[in-house]
Design brief:
The strands form 6 sheets. Strands 13, 14, 16, 17, 18, 19, 20 and 21 form an 8-stranded mixed beta sheet that branches. Strands 3-5-4 form a 3-stranded antiparallel beta sheet, with no helix packed on it. The chain has a 3-stranded antiparallel beta sheet with strand order 6-7-9, with no helix packed on it. It is of the alpha+beta class and 435 residues long. It is elongated and about 75 Å long. The chain is built from 6 helices and 21 strands.
């Protein structure tokens, strides 16, 4: 099994559980922490059977002998007696088989047909031969021909110095051209660029060159048989990029594609730090400011929707929040940002905003144009708000909590610093709503 850094997100998301979970302890450390009784067939009476020969216990006869009368051995003679009774009808024994004079019954014929199932009908499982739906895009087979990331049968198909051909029979579909590396890899004009990853993440050793994901050249970002995942640069913990690794599975960005969410991938991510602590943004993407028709405005309603820099898992949570919001006619959100490499106020603990793992929602707009903000319409301390805006905002927070759209939901009830927004984040292992 190919273990990649990108699969970790599927294991820590509060929203979805995705296949292929791998491990990357270094980066995850930033994100986590009858039988029936036998029948009684025996009688209580004991029966003893005599199996020996019979013994004659009659005393011997000692009387004088008597004349013996010999048995009559002559044939018996018929004795004729005159019959003076009136003649009777002669009854002759009827030797014909008895006839059935009872009303005709249905004739029972032995049924030799196979027994029929008379049990209640069960659900029938029929093999589904229809083409799969929403299977997602398929990559081309000829990306980066002859170069790093391209297909190969042997090393002669890889036209660059120090080339190696990773074989198909070891999990590299159609083979893959590569070379070893310590930090960077060569690029070639007109082809997808490359990146040096830690071979351990794909079952190899040392640094090795792979192709970066390129959504402009392939709908999957990679050629057929490979999947786009986020990997750290070899020998560093401060730089990552989306790269093509062997195997096909649905990770976070593949789920976004299936859901129809627009996003782009950064070429290379260099992590910021705060007080020496790295703000490691795992699976970074820029998700569209319009998700399934609902718009996200930065700072205020008058600003145009704009892409948001987030962890991929946050984009999935935003999509789920949109599905919920649309059931109550919400068409727009105002937010105060997603990424900010900083401490939680008054502490030296990095905020989830430091990992682009959060968003602050300040207000909503509904069909018809009515707008409600947390600052103006949240009813502090009231669990049964009676204004339209107060009820809608209260409903939104509690419904997102119940369906676990977010792992942490801080409302104005939390503290004064949250009077004007919901803080929503994906802290691993949490499920909290301030009330």
């Amino acid at each position: 099994m190919i273990a990649t850094r990108s699969i970790v997100s599927s294991c820590v998301l509060g929203l979805l559980t995705l296949p292929g979970c791998g491990d990357d302890p270094q980066r995850v450390s930033n994100l986590v922490e009858n039988r029936a009784p036998l029948p009684d067939v025996f009688s209580t009476d004991t029966v003893v059977f005599d199996t020996g020969s019979p013994i004659d216990t009659t005393p011997a006869d000692t009387s004088p002998p008597q004349d013996s009368i010999a048995p009559d051995t002559s044939p018996p003679q018929d004795t004729v007696v005159a019959d003076t009774a009136p003649p009777q009808d002669t009854v002759v024994a009827d030797t014909t088989p008895p006839q059935d004079t009872s009303p005709p019954q249905d004739t029972v014929v032995a049924d030799t047909t196979p027994p029929q199932d008379t049990s209640p009908p069960q659900d029938t499982v029929v093999a589904d031969t229809t083409p799969p739906q929403d299977a997602g895009p398929t990559g081309p087979v000829d990306l980066n021909v002859g170069f790093i990331g391209g297909a190969c049968d042997n090393v002669s198909d890889c036209s660059f110095t120090n080339a190696m051909c990773m074989p198909d029979n070891e999990g590299w579909e159609n083979g893959m051209c590569t070379q070893s590396c310590t930090s960077t890899c060569p690029d070639r004009d007109g082809l997808a660029v490359t990146f040096c990853i830690d071979g351990d993440s794909v079952g190899e050793s040392g640094g090795m060159c792979v192709q970066k994901c390129d959504l402009a050249r392939s709908p999957t970002g990679c050629r057929d048989g490979y999947t786009c995942v986020d990997e750290l640069r070899y020998n560093t913990v401060t730089t990552s990029s989306w790269t093509c690794v062997p195997g096909e599975f649905e990770g976070c960005i593949q789920t976004l594609q299936r859901l129809g969410v627009d996003f782009t991938l950064p070429g290379v991510t260099n992590f910021d730090n705060e007080g020496g602590q790295i703000c490691d943004v795992f699976e970074p993407i820029r998700v569209s400011g319009t998700i399934d028709g609902v718009q996200f405005h930065p700072s205020n309603f008058t600003n145009d929707p704009a892409p948001m820099y987030v962890q991929c898992g946050v984009a999935l949570a935003l999509w789920d929040m949109v599905q919920l919001a649309k059931t109550r006619g919400i068409t727009d959100f105002v937010h105060y940002g997603t990424y900010n490499c900083r401490y939680i106020s008054g502490t030296t603990t990095l905020s989830e905003h430091s990992f682009a793992n959060a968003i602050d929602i300040a207000g909503i707009e509904v069909a018809g144009g009515a707008r409600y903000t947390l600052l103006d319409h949240w009813e502090d301390g009231d669990p049964t708000p009676d204004t339209v805006g107060g009820e809608l905002l209260f409903w939104l927070a509690h419904e997102m909590y119940e369906r676990r759209t977010w792992n942490i939901i801080l409302t104005p009830e939390y503290n004064a610093a949250h009077d004007n927004h919901f803080h929503l984040d994906m802290t691993p292992g949490s499920w909290f709503l301030s009330e």
